[in-house]
Amino acid sequence: MFFRFVCCLVVVWLISASDESCPEFPSVENGIIVIEEAEGQVLGTSICIKGYHLVGEKIRFCNASMEWNAPVPTCRLGHCPDPVLVNGKPSSLGPVNVSDKITFKCNDHYILKGSNWSECLDNHTWMPPLPVCKSRDCGPPGNPAHGYFEGTDFNSGSTITYHCEDRYRLVGTQDQQCIDGEWSSALPVCEFIQEAPKPAPQTGFDKALFAFQENKELCKAIKSFVQRLKENGLTMEELKYSLEIKKAELEAKVLS
Ligand SMILES: *[C@@H]1O[C@H](CO)[C@@H](O)[C@H](O)[C@H]1NC(C)=O
Ligand SMILES: *[C@@H]1O[C@H](CO)[C@@H](O)[C@H](O)[C@H]1NC(C)=O
Ligand SMILES: *[C@@H]1O[C@H](CO)[C@@H](O)[C@H](O)[C@H]1NC(C)=O
Ligand SMILES: *[C@@H]1O[C@H](CO)[C@@H](O)[C@H](O)[C@H]1NC(C)=O
């Protein structure tokens, strides 16, 4: 291991300099670059000194054409990146020092999502992470499959109503309100209404048998049985055939 000093620019080699590597010595102002080998690759990790933060790739590697895969990063003043809050205001715009605490406020009509304060840590990161300011209005909501919504106003406080197509039933919340940028409930679901299975078409014989069973008196029963047979245009030949089928069905039932 050896150190290479170029007027305050430091590169720390954790590998032999004679190793096949990128020819250019990368260096970064107000920081160091540590060059090491990991899993057969030569890596360059850039680290800024206290009071500066890194802009660019922290870890770069020397690629197959012996070039670094990304440009040299820079160390900028401010221990953590300058706080950015779109549609809002941080209490300080930077540069910041380590352990500095800042607070956040969103513009009117925006709501803060996340923590309303953050601290610049030793490792150059903000903790808790920087929040975002979200509009209090909602975007157009989604449609469930086989469903749609009624309503054209998606602003804060407005309400929409969901409906399903014919033969579909709504499962979930039908009326939804836009509250602080979010719809009050999850998207409902349109569920297919299962129809009751249609009764199997009755044969003429079945109808006749039904007519027979409807009567309490044997004479009347036979009479309506024969009448129903005639109505259905069944001949005695066909009746025999139907009876054979019935017999076969009954036998099959007994066997199973
Ligand atoms: C290596 O990185 C350089 C710079 O980004 C790029 O131009 C070149 O194509 C890369 N080579 C390979 C083999 O990826
Ligand atoms: C950070 O520290 C420097 C020197 O210690 C000081 O001049 C500067 O005002 C500090 N910045 C903030 C935002 O406190
Ligand atoms: C941050 O939020 C807390 C409650 O979560 C509140 O008590 C506090 O006043 C807020 N601070 C600022 C600066 O808005
Ligand atoms: C920075 O430090 C904090 C607290 O020690 C830790 O939770 C966080 O993961 C660290 N972040 C990075 C990028 O190392």
From TrEMBL:
Span of domain Sushi: 20-77, 78-135, 136-192
Record-linked CDD domains: CCP (cd00033)
A family per Pfam: Sushi
GO BP field: negative regulation of complement activation, classical pathway; positive regulation of protein catabolic process; regulation of opsonization; response to symbiotic bacterium
Record's signal peptide: 1-17
Disulfide bonds: 48-75, 106-133
Source species, domain of life: Eukaryota
Gene Ontology CC: one annotated term: extracellular space
Keywords for the protein's UniProt record, in alphabetical order: Disulfide bond, Repeat, Signal, Sushi
Cited PROSITE patterns: SUSHI
Protein name as catalogued: Complement component 4 binding protein beta
Gene this chain is encoded by: C4BPB
